[in-house]
Amino acid sequence: MFAGLPELGISNGEDLKETLTNCTEPLKAIDQFQMENGILLPTLQSALPFLDLHGTPRLEFHQSVFDELREKLMERVATIAEGKDEDRYIKLEELLEKSFPLVKMPSIQPIVMQVLKHLPKVPEKKLKQVMADKELYKVCSVEVKRQIWQDNQALFGDEVSPLLKQYIVEKEAALFSSDLSILHNFFSPSPKTRRQGEVVLKLTQMIGKNVKLYDMVLQFLRTLFLRTRNVHYCTLRAELLMSLHDLDVSEICSVDPCHKFSWCLDACIREKFVDAKRARELQGFLDGVKKGQEQVLGDLSMILCDPFACNTLVLSTVRNLQELLSQDALPRDSPDLLLLLRMLSLGQGAWDMIDSQVFKEPRMDLEVVTRFLPAVMSIVVDDYTFTVEQKLPSEEKTSLTYPTTLPETFSRYIQENRVACEIGLYYVLHIAKQRNKNALQRLLPALVDTYNDMAFGDIFLHLLTGHLTLLSDEFGSEEFCTAVFDNFLLTSFSSKENVHRHCLRLLNHLQQKVLASYMETVMKTLEPPKQMNSTEFSSISNTIRGDISWFTQYLSISVLIC
What we know:
This protein is mostly helical. The protein contains 32 helices and no strands. The protein has helices at about 15-20, 25-35, 40-45, 50-55, 60-80, 90-100, 110-115, 125-130, 135-140, 140-150, 155-175, 190-195, 200-205, 210-230, 230-245, 250-255, 260-270, 275-285, 295-305, 305-325, 335-350, 350-355, 365-390, 410-415, 420-435, 435-445, 460-470, 480-485, 495-510, 515-525, 535-540, 550-560. α13 (about 200-205) crosses α15, α23 packs parallel to α25 and α25 (about 420-435) runs parallel beside α27 (about 460-470). It starts with 12 loop residues before the first helix and ends with a helix.
């Protein structure tokens, strides 16, 4: 416990033991030891007997004095570090040199750690000693750890890895939330609210103002994104930069070439819309990438691959198409729309760009503009025409029926082009939000075959199930149930476990609305595999208590199985 005292010329327990062993008068030896090692204040010696008279142990007195002096010294260290003296760090280094031998003493350790914390550059020898001792490493401040981490990427990776895993788990848990609502979904929290999450705050604190650590975290995120294709890593990349922006960490923001682009895009995400002014700013950033700096496109593409950015871009695209319809204009005539497609294309191509290390904007398929988007607009016109027809007086109505087929161009492009597919999926969400049952029944079968099975991705299914709650009364119709389940969701549930879970989320919310006869059919389709151990199934069933319906029991069991 008292290791290090001899190095400073201070006697310890071993010295006292040796003195008592070799002396002839122990009481005198003890008095002498107390005189030499006690508080060197002449006036104190005459006062100590009064403490004895009051029954106050010398240990208690010395401990209280020690605690007070320790607090004063720690305050003094902070004051010196915050001062403007040119030699302030020299003073701290001298104090560190004197106190470090006692770093293992619990009573002295806080002082040593305080000195280490306030040194902008801790001597390398001391850092290695701290790093080599697990207990010291554990108790040292994050300011000291930053200096250790910046030269030990593996150690920093070990610290960061659990946080990155936690972040992904939290994002995926949000997508499978049992709370289905169009108002409170995955994209509801504002950017600033999301940046108050535990993981983002911890990473921001770990990085501080250290550019090297920031670059390491970005490299971890790129590597994990490449390895897993998980777009939530792209979200974290953007959130981390904007969290540092919120804290005004100019040391990092000023050197990240994506900072101003992310800042502008963050404002768009907050509004869930890219207006004309911000569109021009974003275009200026993209056009401003100079020759020789093309590598920045890799980071820009990651930021645009963030689902929150993608959500904003596609919502703006759908809104833009509506405005073009009202103006009798074509998609190719809208610079803002072309920019949105350009950014969507760059974001959707993030993985390919980083994987190939070919930093070049992907060429946009012009037929998406000249053929696919007009096909989407024709579907909108079909809806509008049918709606107007239904409102006409009976004598003016024609024999117009609602179309059941889709333009061949629409179906082909959502299968072959990722940007077109994203727009098509969000158009489906748009018509669901409008409670347009006819259009939904027309479109859902086409989503069975989409680019890279995007229609069966968790983000889209999370949003779709939330939007379908607006049409809850329609689930009393077998025709609508067939369109949603048989013609779309149940076409792939057996091969995609996530689709099974989203079906259960939707059914749990709509159990009182779905047609009873159809419910029984869906239940049989979704029932657990027969090979499941009956004892295990029974055990799970017995854990469910309370007055709940048989359907809710089954859902609980199914979720556990999944």
